Amino acid sequence: MEKILVVDINHGALDVAEEYLSYEDYNYSKNIVIWDIYGKISKLEELSSLNGINSFSNKDKEIYKKYNKLKEFYPDLKIITNLKNNFDYSKFKEVIAPVHCPIDVKFKTFHEAVSEIINKKYNDIKSKIITITGVKGKTSTSELINYILSDKYNVYLHNSNKGSITPTEVLNNLNNLKKDEKLSKYDYFIFEISLGLVSSKFGVITNILEEYSIAKNLRTAKVKLDTLKFVENCYILEELFKTYRNDIKSSDIKNLNLNLIDDKTPNLKIISKYPLKFEYITSEDGNHEINHIFEFDKKIFGLHHIQNSILSYEICKNMMNSDDIIKRIKSFELKNRMELIAKNILKNTNPGLNIKSISNSMLDFIETFENPIICIGGDFGCTCEEINAEKLFEQILNLFADSKDNIKYNKNDSIILYLSGELGNQLFDIWQNKKADYEQDGKHLIFKRINGKKIINKKDLIDLRLLNDKNNYLIIYRSSII
Fold first, then answer.
1. Residue 462: inside a domain, yes or no?
2. With pLDDT > 90 as the criterion, what percentage of the chain qualifies?
3. In angstroms, rounded to a whole number, what is the distance separating the alpha carbons of residues 186 and 361?
4. 190 and 148 in contact (C-beta within 8 Å)?
5. Which of 40, 65, 97 delimits the end of a domain?
6. What is d(CA 362, CA 356) in angstroms, rounded to the nearest whole number?
7. Does residue 213 or residue 337 have the better pLDDT?
8. Over the stretch 52-107, which tens digit does the pLDDT of each residue have?
9. Which one of 54, 260, 343, 413 is most buried, counting C-beta atoms within 10 A?
10. Do both 422 and 305 map to the same domain?
11. CA 30 – CA 1 distance, rounded (Å)
12. What's the domain count of the chain?
């Protein structure tokens, strides 16, 4: 019998394999081969022999525990633990891998495999599942939907604040809830997922701000559009649909139910940037339109919250009335995502920060607050998609070159940028090496390197004696440790 190849232990191959192996009626249950394409197990075994498993991260402990469990229960299970060039796929009937896996062969994605397993194993609760993906705004949107629905229902939330958001984590969470006999406790299950949706009643694609390459340039971020087929009702912004209309149509998805949300004028009017307040025209019962006023708490800052909130609103209208949803949005608070942590300090620290989101944060900030000081930094290795420091540097220069017409920022003033962490060091080095080329564009910017300390919180500003009452501060730090 031909075999099935499951690829990439780093991102859930053991989880997928375990599901397939557990199906007694599954024809290939004894013909699973796992390919550890990045040599994860070899590295863990070497580290274990040197320092013991207590030196592992929590994620690595889980991987190593599952690996040993599968080997114990299925001693004949074949695991290829070394990276091989010119891999022979011809002996496998099916290849299953993460969508970002750098293999140039037709394969079933983990999103599809997980969707099939949900339909088989958890079909009775699929109507309660909400999945969220996108380049930016996934976590914020999942937190907001959770906050809104929690006013009336028992809601289970798993997002990047709680751990990995690979598609297989949906299964792991559902399996754990089932094992603990807690599935029936919840009215809704909300999952943030990287690079696509899985089988669910409702789905949201927040945006595709950057069509970055994945899988060593074999695919791009728009591949998440292919996962629309796994969702019964999907909500996306109308502008996103217009941009990728041809890609969506070429997917030839049967019974596609798209709900297009218009976030442009005249359908949406910004009343105040801070505190954030806007008017949104929405359809009620599909018969008539109503103008609603949305307001946010003063701790929330940034125009990007508008898109997140109307997507959340449209989803939650299926479960709650509009007035109750709008009341919940007004009291919503969000940690570390453009959060006002003091009267003159905004904080935006999360692992998913990219060039576009950093640029938008800075632009919103200098257009809204007087006497701005910006602190930028970050660690590398936070996500699979690293940030390009040189492109970020050029975007910062372009941002200030293009901001001559905004009200708050005076082009005759200089703005200080404090740079810390690995990303900050790279930005400073780029400035030092190229400042002669960029002197005109950067003449209103003062770059200052912070050595030996990261600027992540108010305390860091105090310790460095940078904080005063005259200025307003924006802290941007790309890190999974906040």
1. yes
2. 59
3. 36
4. no
5. 97
6. 10
7. 337
8. 888 888 889 999 999 999 989 888 889 998 666 678 898 899 999 999 898 889 99
9. 260
10. no
11. 9
12. 3
Summarised one tens digit per residue, pLDDT across range 184-196 is: 999 999 999 999 9
Cβ-Cβ contacts under 8 Å for 425 (sequence gap 6 or more): 419, 449
Which tokens hold the place of 295? 């307001």
Percentages helix, strand, coil for the chain, rounded to the nearest 5?
A: 40, 25, 40
Q: What is the DSSP letter of 444?
A: T
What CA–CA distance (Å, rounded) separates 58 from 478?
A: 21
Give every CB contact of residue 204 below 8 A, 6+ residues apart in sequence. 130, 131, 132, 133, 134, 141, 234, 235, 236, 311, 312, 315
Asked if residue 317 and residue 363 are part of one domain, the reply reads no
Could you tell me which of 180, 126, 191, 121 has the C-alpha nearest to residue 156? 191
Structural domain harbouring 197: 110-334
Top pLDDT among 364 and 310 is at 310
Q: 414: which residues sit within 8 A by CB, 6+ positions away? A: 444, 445, 446
* 259, 122: one domain: yes
Residue scoring higher pLDDT (202 or 102) = 202
Between 413 and 211, name the one with better pLDDT: 413
Decide if 294 contacts 311 (C-beta within 8 A): no
Q: Measuring CA to CA, which residue among 132, 166, 115 is closest to residue 11?
A: 166
Give me the residue label for tokens 């937190």: 143
pLDDT over 80 at 407, yes or no: no
